Structure formats: structure tokens, C-alpha cells
């Protein structure tokens, strides 16, 4: 039997270095009042940093990551890491799941298992899907694309992975955040292969007549503008001067954790209480994956490339599209707004959950994807 080498085996010296950096964190002077109003709460961050340094067992989570069904493909000279969860029935429809930021492939594993083995979760084996979960270029175990300007873009890498490497002539796709954009471009470029897409966010039309905007759509646009003004500082920095930020986050694990944890709190359905949705071990494993692979810098590239006009804009998606909106996610586009760009055949407002729905509410998300794809299985 041939044994695959472990996906990750952090040398003891790197674990020692991480612990030393955490223990030597140079903390800023506290502001009056504290809390989360001006950024990550100092008390919460100190608690997590202390646990990361003394108590959190990386080796347990390293073993769990290595136990996942990891594979690598070479796409035009670019290695791509992905997980493959085979459906529990023969001929299961394939689906590619794409995460957003600051997530990793790990966040999608609970969803992937439910989709591939529905009978284990009270579902029907006939609904099983074969699930592919790639790591985005520059995220954890997939190296960044070698060029800022030259193809292929990520959606084309995904198509080559699904069709040429894995041999799937027809497949579905799901994504939220950055993954929603990649999924949309994939469907637009390859409607002959993509049977349907499931999204947690939608692209806005490139052009539209302002006079045609409905009151509901205008309220949505106003809410997006208000969110960008209040919460969009990270996006502006990552879109304009990502490398300036990357030096600090690559050097300081406490800084990296602060940058990530703020988003997990603000964008989830946790009512301001992180532990209600995310265990300390989950948050620290996500941060550790970025830290040990040194990829926080390259994870910023999609923001910069989009802002610089290097990423293809979505014009019109003709394949059947499902939109699932979780109440604590960043935006809540009305159906009519989504229909300006997509062929919307299913539109669902979820009762709970947020930006990280694959981890927060995998059962709700799996059911919506499953029901949408029954017509195509």
C-alpha cells in the first residue's frame, strides 16, 4: 500500500518559535472603555493568546487535518490542494465548494460530509454529492498564482480541476464571499459544464439604470454603503496596500489573530459572544493554518486584484442559481437585485447563521443545497 505523506508536519522549532512570539507579545496601551467598538477586544485577545501559547494542542489538530482526504493536482504548472469526499451512491453529482476570507478549506468540512453522506445525518442517500473542496490559490496549501496579470484566474483553475483532472463533465458549485465571486465567474464562463450554482452572496450588475432601482433595492444599496463606511476598513486596506499590512501580520501571531477574530465575531450570528459559535480550538486552528503556511499575505491578493481591475467582472449568469441569505452575513440583497445578474430559481432567507454558515449552520446550508440540486442530480 502506498502511503501519502502528511499534508502538514510542523517542526518542533516552529512550534517553539510561535510560543515564544506569543509570550513576548508587545501589547498596546489600553484605551478607556475597552470592548469591541474600536477593534478587537484586548481581554478576549489576551485570553486566546494565552491559550494558544499554553494549552492549545496543535498536534491534535494537525493530525485531524492530515486525516482529511487531501489530494494535489497540477493545473498548468500550479499545484492545487483539494479535499475529495466521494458521494455514498454511485454516479453522485459532483460539486465544488469555495470558501471566502478569512476562512480556509477546513471550514467547509462539516458541510462536505453532510453533502457526501446524507444518510449519516438523517437524509436520503439518493441526494449524495461528490464534494470537492479546493484551497484557494495563496490560501494555506495551494501556492499563489505565479502572476498578478496572466491567466488562469481561479475560476478557470477550478474548471480544469473538475473537468480535466477529475473527469467531471457536469458539476455544481457553491460559494460565499470570495467564493461566491469565483463560483459566479465559473458558471458564467462554463454554462455547458456547470449545472447550477448555490450562492451566499451575489455580484452587483456592472451597469444599470439608476431610475430602475426599486425602493427595496435602494434600501439594500444604502445598507451596503453604511456597512462599508462602518466595517469596510479591512477591505480598503487589503485592496489598496495589502503588503504594508502583511508584514505585521506575518511577524506577529497575536496581530494575525486579532485581525481574524474581529471578523469571526462581527460577521457571525454569535450576538457578540464568540464561544457561542466558535470554539477556541477552531479559531486557533484557523489562525495556525495561516501562520504555519505563511499565507496571510497571499490571501489578500483577491482583494487587490479585484480593486485593480485584474479580475473578470460578472456580467450575466444563465445557469440555474440558488441564493441563500443568512441574517448575520454582510449583505442581504433582495431577489430582484440578484435577478439583474443571475437566473435565480431559488431564493431562501435563513432563520439564523452568518458569514461562516458552513461552520455555523452546516445542516441548514446542506439542506438548501440538496433541495436545490435535486432537479439536477
From TrEMBL:
The keyword Hydrolase applies. The active site is at 177 (nucleophile), 303 (proton donor), 355 (proton acceptor). The keyword Hydrolase applies. Its EC number is 3.-.-.-. It is an enzyme of class 3 (hydrolase). Residues 6-107 form the Epoxide hydrolase N-terminal domain. GO terms for biological process: epoxide metabolic process. GO terms for molecular function: epoxide hydrolase activity. SUPFAM superfamilies: alpha/beta-Hydrolases. Pfam families: Abhydrolase_1, EHN. Keywords: Aromatic hydrocarbons catabolism, Hydrolase. Residues 128-202 form the AB hydrolase-1 domain. It comes from the Bacteria. Belongs to the peptidase S33 family. This is Epoxide hydrolase family protein. It comes from Streptomyces sp. R41.
Amino acid at each position: 500500500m502506498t502511503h501519502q505523506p502528511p499534508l502538514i508536519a510542523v517542526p518542533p522549532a516552529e512550534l517553539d518559535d510561535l510560543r515564544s512570539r506569543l509570550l513576548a507579545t508587545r501589547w498596546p496601551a489600553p484605551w478607556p472603555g475597552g470592548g469591541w467598538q474600536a477593534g478587537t477586544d484586548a481581554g478576549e485577545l489576551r485570553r486566546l493568546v494565552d491559550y494558544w501559547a499554553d494549552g492549545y494542542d496543535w498536534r491534535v489538530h494537525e493530525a485531524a487535518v492530515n486525516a482529511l482526504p487531501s489530494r494535489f493536482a497540477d493545473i498548468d504548472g500550479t499545484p492545487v490542494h483539494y479535499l475529495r469526499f466521494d458521494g455514498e451512491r454511485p454516479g453522485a453529482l459532483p460539486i465544488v465548494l469555495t470558501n471566502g476570507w478569512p476562512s480556509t478549506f477546513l471550514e467547509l468540512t462539516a458541510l462536505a460530509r453532510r453533502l457526501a453522506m446524507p444518510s449519516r445525518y438523517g437524509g436520503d442517500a439518493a441526494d449524495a454529492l461528490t464534494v470537492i473542496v479546493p484551497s484557494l490559490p495563496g490560501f494555506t496549501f495551494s501556492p499563489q498564482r505565479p502572476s498578478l496579470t496572466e491567466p488562469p484566474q481561479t475560476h478557470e483553475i477550478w474548471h480544469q480541476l473538475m473537468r480535466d483532472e477529475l473527469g467531471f463533465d457536469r458539476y455544481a458549485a457553491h460559494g460565499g464571499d470570495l467564493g461566491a465571486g469565483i463560483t459566479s465567474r465559473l458558471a458564467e464562463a462554463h454554462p455547458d459544464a456547470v449545472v447550477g450554482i448555490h450562492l451566499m452572496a451575489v455580484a452587483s450588475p456592472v451597469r444599470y439604470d439608476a431610475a430602475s432601482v426599486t425602493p427595496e433595492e435602494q434600501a439594500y444599496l444604502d445598507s451596503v454603503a453604511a456597512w462599508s463606511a462602518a466595517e469596510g476598513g479591512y477591505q480598503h486596506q487589503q485592496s489598496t496596500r495589502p503588503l504594508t499590512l502583511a508584514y505585521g501580520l506575518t511577524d506577529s501571531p497575536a496581530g494575525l489573530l486579532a485581525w481574524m477574530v474581529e471578523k469571526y465575531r462581527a460577521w457571525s450570528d454569535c450576538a457578540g459572544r464568540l464561544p457561542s459559535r466558535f470554539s477556541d480550538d477552531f479559531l486557533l486552528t484557523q489562525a495556525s493554518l495561516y501562520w504555519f503556511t505563511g499565507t496571510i499575505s497571499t490571501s489578500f491578493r483577491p482583494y487587490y486584484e479585484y480593486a485593480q481591475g485584474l479580475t473578470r467582472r460578472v456580467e450575466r449568469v444563465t445557469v440555474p442559481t440558488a441564493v441563500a441569505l443568512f441574517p448575520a452575513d454582510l449583505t442581504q440583497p433582495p431577489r430582484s437585485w440578484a435577478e439583474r445578474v443571475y437566473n435565480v430559481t431559488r431564493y431562501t432567507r435563513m432563520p439564523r447563521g452568518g458569514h461562516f454558515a458552513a461552520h455555523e449552520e452546516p445542516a441548514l446550508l446542506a439542506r438548501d443545497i440538496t433541495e436545490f440540486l435535486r432537479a439536477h442530480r
